[in-house]
Amino acid sequence: MLRLIGRLVRERTEAQWRVVDALRAKNERDPGRHGLQKQVARELGISDQSVSRAILRSGWQEEWAARPAAEMLLATAHGLIRDTVGPDASNRGER
């Protein structure tokens, strides 16, 4: 799961990063708002279609769909490690 997310992120072009970063910033300020892609297109001086293509090719939607699964797997692994090592291991410097 982490390799999938890593590959999507690693293979983005500079242009795709500009679109993804702009969308992410707008979405954080106003989550769920419609028309964000059009706003990003205007701000970046590119067409709506260019924004749509950048989102599609960057794997942004797939990345965000995979993040909850990755978080769950990491939390499960952390819990298994913590239970195996014991709750006091971090206080004793054991890992």
Give the topology.
Elements: H1 2-10, H2 14-29, H3 36-44, H4 48-58, H5 60-85, H6 89-92
Helix pairs in contact: 1-5, 2-3, 2-4, 3-4
- What is the mean pLDDT? 88
Helix count? 6
Share in β-strands: under 5%
Helix percent band: over 70%
What do you see in this structure?
By secondary structure, the protein is mainly alpha-helical. The chain has helices spanning 2-10, 14-29, 36-44, 48-58, 60-85, 89-92. The longest helix is centred in the C-terminal third of the chain and has 26 residues, at 60-85.
In short:
The chain has 95 residues and is mainly alpha-helical. 79% of the residues lie in helices and 0% in strands.
Name a few traits of the molecule:
single chain; about 100 residues; mainly alpha; about 80% helix; elongated
